[in-house]
Structure formats: structure tokens, C-alpha cells
Amino acid sequence: METLLRDVRFGLRVLRKNIGYTAVALVALALGIGANAAIFSVVNALLLRPLPYIDSRRLVVVDTGDREIGADQFQGMSPADFWDYKDQSETFEQLACYSGGGFSLTGVENPESFPGTRVSPNYFDMLKARPLLGRTFREEDGIAKSPDTIILSYRLWQRYFGGDESIIGKTLGDTGTEVIGVMPPDFKWPDYAECWIPLSRDSFEMRNRANRYFSALGLIRADQSLESADAQLKTVAARLEVSYPNSNRNIGVRLSLFRDAYTRKVRSSFLILLGAVGFVLLIACANVANLLLARAAGRRREMAIRLAVGARRSSLIRQLLVESAMLGLAGGALGVMLAMWGVDLLVRLRPRNFGYLRLEDFVRIDASVLMFTLVVSVLTGLLFGLIPALQSSKPDLNEWLKEGRGSDGSRHRRWRSGLVVSEIAMAIVLLSGAGLLIKSFLNLQRADLGLEPRNLMSMSLEVSPRKYPNDEAHVRFVRQVMDRLERVHGVESVAATSGMLFPFLTFNFNIEGRPLPADADAMYDSVSPNYFRTMKARLVSGREFDERERPDSPRAAIVNETLARRFFGGEDPLGKRITLNYLGQNRSQEIVGVVKDMNQGQGGRIIPQIFVSADQSPWLSSGLIVRTSSDVAGVHKELQQALWEVDRAQPAARFSSAEVALSTALSEPRFYTVLLGFFAGLALFLSAIGIYGVLSYSVAQRTREIGIRMALGGRRTDVFKLVVGEGLLLAGLGVGIGLAASFGLTRLLSNLLFGVTASDPSTFAIIAALLFGVALLACYLPARRAARVDPMVALRYE
Known about the structure:
This protein is α+β, with helices and mostly antiparallel strands. 50% of the residues lie in helices and 17% in strands. A hairpin with a 6-residue loop joins strand 2 (92-105) and strand 3. The longest helix has 41 residues, at 258-298.
């Protein structure tokens, strides 16, 4: 211990004496370690940290889907299937389901609608979640004839009800709904939910098998395994396929750990980012190793003298490693400070709903991140210090004692050149990945939307089933609202839709007279006749909905180009009939039109879409699409007032600009592009510093040689070309190795790309040219300094 403390004190004196070298090394290490700590904090929250609810090894997600399509497309299950799985599975301690829903508070001065979740009564018991106030649901709350009940989230309780503890047992407005509980602030599943409403098992919806829009969570019994639970679920699925062939043909089941299921989409992306920041750290290490090798040349005589007077080589290696470890720890301390700022920036840049947890609630610099940073800092110090320590401690006393103060061995030069080549190769890999993501993102932004988002907005409209109990009353109310809104100054047109700006319902369908391999899926949207004109979507063939679509007339449908192309090939779909599985009812629809594909927030992915007439198939909750003649921001108050003139009990509408909504839909690819682009830029900057440092040191070491060349008639341009050529040779080797590695590694980005392949030659060519340009700039200053060497001064050097 005393020896180690002596090495530490000596190392501190050495680092303090060479303050410039120390500062450069600390900046490089802080950038590399800080970036790693920031990304690891997100990976830790999403993938590693224990769940805030229960044992993550027993909490699973149960999905169903068509086996012929593939398990990757499994998503959710039908309500009736859920009850069968729950009743017939013995490996689960609890099996619960939930689905998106909301709650409209009416009969108050300011009616409002809250985003919520409909859950089976055992939902909270399954998660072992206890309320802050009141109680959670019981089995009797899931009976249709029971009084309506609701549980509030902590944030809704605080925001709307002012944290009133007497809220338990009260009935909200004129809804007849009783508040029975308030959840604690750390319960946020799903994260969007501000309230929870019990599902009634004996309702019509619960008997539906065709639409798989419920999510199911299960808690496996402690004495059972994931494999046994999966096997039993597959047995139940086979039984249901036999019992209900019309709805369950080819329907399989998939069991996934909760964390795996809800991080599946982001896991690979963040692991790629973690690998990217690992490259940045390696580049920083290479830079610091180069600095240490340069310093080692200046300390050769010191090392030679210490060896000559009896010092052991192991003592010299230990001393040099202690110095590099101290640099690593100091860089790690600065990196933690940068990571704190970086985590805050990550949370601000992140997409709105990311993974299964909200980053702002769970991502932080905790003990795990600090331990990770400590380990990385120590390993980093040993990594960049090992090669210089081994090289500087080799006992070649005669040669070292004879060498001049500024001399350098060829072995050191080869090591420094090799480190620079590796830096450039890693930078090329990161730049290639960033270039592909940038090109992909630009393709997404330039993609044909099939609609005009400017001056377009959505407006929520909740249609109360109590107040408007049948389709006729529903349609009449929606028409009244649309007529009133169209009279608002600045409004050009208004249309109704079941999907707001982005459709969210998926229904099965079949083409009559043409059996498909299995029931096909398509996005479903119930729209008013002027929907396509309001969206400024172009009709390719056929007609739009009009007055012919009455509730008592034959049902019509309009499909998009993708559905027509995929399921009808080159045949004209007009006049053909499809059978749409609508909430358990098979409805025959005649195709009367084909509309141009609309990219409505699908990230560039166009999927089959079916539109039906809202006059024939009204949806319980409708969205209104409003097109204005100018900026949409100025008409919110007028539209809200117009809605209340029709029905004062309507909850306050939620407004969303189409341009903002489409930008939000691109937030995830933008997030990855910005992050990888930043790390690639950082790698390019560090690589340029590496080239500059090696060439500057080389010029300083070769000052005497350059002076002799010029004294013997060498021209300044020749010296300039000599130095630039040396730098470009290193860049060329690094670019070649990096491009070869990029062709393999960028394939990991395939799932994040749109309109560009992972081996796009133009991107690789641009990246190679960019790095050669940066390398040329890094070579310029050392080359110019070499060309200006005075031969007389150089010959007296050393």
C-alpha cells in the first residue's frame, strides 16, 4: 500500500508538471466516458434495472396472432380468448388484460376527457400494486349491472382534484361513476393512463373473438417455468382453434417476458448506440495512448537511468499504469458531470412514448451507473496506458542513454501510426451508420404523404352512448357539430373520422369469392363523405362517399392503393366485395373507390387501409378533421366554443396540428439520427486531432532531417507534400479498413432505415470523401510548419 501511495504522489506531480498534456487527455476521456455513462443510464433503466412492480422473471406478456404471418406480427388478443386463457391456464398466479380507453367527466363547469385504461378486475392484484387511497377493483366491479367505478392516477388526483383525500366514495359529475381509489405516484402502467376503469366480463365486447386489441399480462406461479406456461398456453390455443374455427383458425400464442416485450422495439437501437459510444471511447483511448507514447519518448533517459540504478521493470510498468489509471479516474469524474447534462438532454430529445417507461421518470445517474463509470474509467486507464508502459519499460539501456532528448524509436512511430489508423477506421464505421440514418430520415421527410398537412388539425369528439344511444342519434349529433364548426371564421371544411389524424384500428377482412391463405388485416377508418377532400387526398379511381351511403343502403368501402395492389394484383378492385369482421359481425362491403396511399404517421411504412362510411358505420368516439384557410393555432377557442354551443356537456376537445403530429411520428428516427450523428461527429473530431497530433509530433521529431533536406536543395513544396502524404496514407489505410468493417456492421441498422440499403455505395463514398477532407485539414498545419523550417536553425536543433 505504501508503494502504491508513493506511485500516486509521484504520478500527481508528473501530471501537474505537464498540465497541457493532462488537460488534453482529460477532455478526450471525459467526452468518451461521459457519452458511455449517459447512454448506459438509459440502457440500465430500460433493460437492466428491476421493474418497479414485481419480480420481472415471472411477469410476462401474452400475445396472439396468425401463425402463417409469423410471430413477429403477434400483438394482443381478443377479449373472449383472454377469458378462455385465464380460465384454462393453471400455470399462472394471475392473468389480466387491459385496453386503451378514456373517461369523460360531464355535468361539471368544465367538462373534460381523461386518457385512461380499461382493465380486468384482477389487474392491480396481478401487478401486486397497492393504492395510496381507497381500494383497487374486485371481481364484482366487473359485472355489467354493478355501479360504475374508477381509480385515479396520482397525477390526475393532484392536477384536477387538488389532492382532495375525501374524493374516495364520491360520484363524478353526472356520470354516476364512483371514485374507489387513488394509485401512488410511482405506479405508471401504462404510462399514459390517468385513470383505470373495470372491464365487464358479461358485456358484448367481452364475447368478441375477432378483434385482438387487448393486451394481456400474466404472473407465472413461483413453482412454474416460462416453458411450462408457454406449453400450456399453446394447448389452450389448439383447443380454441378446434372450438372456434371461424375466428381462431391458425391463431397461435406467444409468451414473452414483460421487459423483453415492451423493449423489443428499442432494445437493438440502444445497444447499437451503446456500441457507438464504445467506439468513441476507444478513439479517445487511442488519442491518449498516442499522447503517452509521445511523452514516453521524452522520458526515455529518465527510465534508462532508473533501470541502470537498479529499478525493476515491473516497478516502472506499475508507475506508468498508476499515472494512466489516475487519468482515467479523473476523466471518469468529469465524464459523470457531462453524463448528468447528457441524460437531461436525452430525456428532452426522446420520443414522447419510449419503451415501456417514461425516461424522465426512470432514467438517472444512480449507483449502477456510477459503478459502471468507475469500472469503465479504471479499465480505460489501463487500456490506453498498457502499450506505452510496456514500450517505455523495455531495458535497452545503451541505446536509450545514447539517444538525444527528442529522438523517437521506429517501434513507437509504428504504434502511433497504428493507433491513428484504428481511430480513423472506427470513425468511418460511425460516420457510415450516421450517414445512412441521415439519408433515411431525409427520405422519410420527403416521402409522399398522400395528403396536405398544412393548415390541417384534428379535434377530439366524445359521443356519449347514454345521450346518443343508437346510430341514428350518433350520426345526427356529429352532423350538427360539423355544420356548426364549418361556420367558424377561417374554417374551410370539417370531416369526421374514427381514427383522428392517424388510424389506430385493425380489422380482419376477406375478399368474397377469392379465399385468401388466411384472414387479411387492414387499418380501419370510419369517415364522413368529405373526409378525402378535407385531407386533400387524391382519389385514384372510383368515387368518394356521398348521399348514397345511407344507414339502410348497401355498405360501401374505399381502399388504398397498397391494399388494391397487394390483394388484387393487376385486377380492378372496383365493384368487388370484401367481408369485414366488424366487432364480431361479418359485414359485406362493396369497393366503390381506390384512394392514393396516405402516410399517416407510420414512419414511411404504408399498410393496407379500408375506409367505410361513418353514416353507415359510426364509431363510438369520433375525431374531427378541420382544414383552415390560415394558421390552425388561432381557431382553437372558436372551435371549442362552437362545440359547446351544440352540446355544453361535451368534454373539452383535444387539438393536434397535422404538421406537429407528423413530426412527432418521426421523432423516433430523428432521435436515433441525432444521437448517432453526434457520436459520429465526436469520433471524427477526435480522429482529426489524432492525425494532427501524430503529424505534429512527427514534424517535431524530424526537424533536423527536414533541415538537412532543405539545406541540400529540397523545396518547401516537397516537404509539404511529404508530410501531407504521410497523413493521407494513414487516412487511406483507416478509410479502407473502416469501409470493409462498415459493410458488415451497418447491417445492424437495417430495421431503422427507410428508402436506403445498409450498403448504400453513395453514402460510403461521401463519408470516405468527408474523412479524407478532414484528414487533409488536419495535415495542413503540421505540413505548413514543416515547410517553413529554417535549415540553419534545424541543423542546430538539439
